Amino acid sequence: MRSAAPERRAVLAGHLDYRAAHLVQIRPSRPSDGAALVEVAYATGFFGCSAEIYFPARALFGALWVGPYLGPAGACGLLAECEGRVLGYVLGSPNPQTYRGYFQKNLPGWLLAAALGRYPGLMGSLRFLWRSLCYPSRRAPLDLYPAHLHINLLPEARGKGLGERLLRAHLDCLRARGVPGVQLSTTLENSAALRLYQKLGFREYARWESPLWAPWLGRPTVHLTLVLSLKPKDFVKNTLI
After folding, report:
1. pLDDT tens, 134-168?
2. Do 186 and 212 contact (CB within 8 A), yes or no?
3. Has residue 185 been placed in a domain?
4. Is 63 part of a structural domain of the chain?
């Protein structure tokens, strides 16, 4: 027990090294994890850095990009945790209709909260919301790939295999539920994650240059839609590649 104490102190101080990686547990996410998940999402929401640069309304950010996956629209959500600290997660929804229903149900409440000034930073976030409507992602067919996912890790948790552990477990859960396929959106900026997606069998469905992030990056970015079939025959094929 004494030999593990320095490792635990390192984790609690925000430093995860290879000695402490074995202390990390992967477990299902719960609604009570919401605040911790939003913390990770917000800290990594701009190409691995803080989302504050383009979306200062943190509470609304959490409602839009974490909230959907903590209720009926979400499934197979997992997080990486060490000594009570959440280091990363994978969240997703296998049902486009239920996912869309979350936004339809909550939109009136969000608009009311905005009108009452309950979202500090809202004005500074409207630019991104407008641009995301003008430059949307390109979805793959929902009949073939109904599920989508998001995966995020804090900087100190990267490069230690946690992303692969999370993603493999999430995909196994979707397969067990009979979900036929999953898709995700990313950019060429995310080179480390792209290597992981390729390793696990994702393939490119669409590629396009978009000015969505130009006001904050200073240049357009190449966006990708990646897909993975979860059907048994395709799973066997992917494992043999």
Report:
1. 999 999 999 999 999 999 999 999 999 999 999 99
2. no
3. yes
4. yes
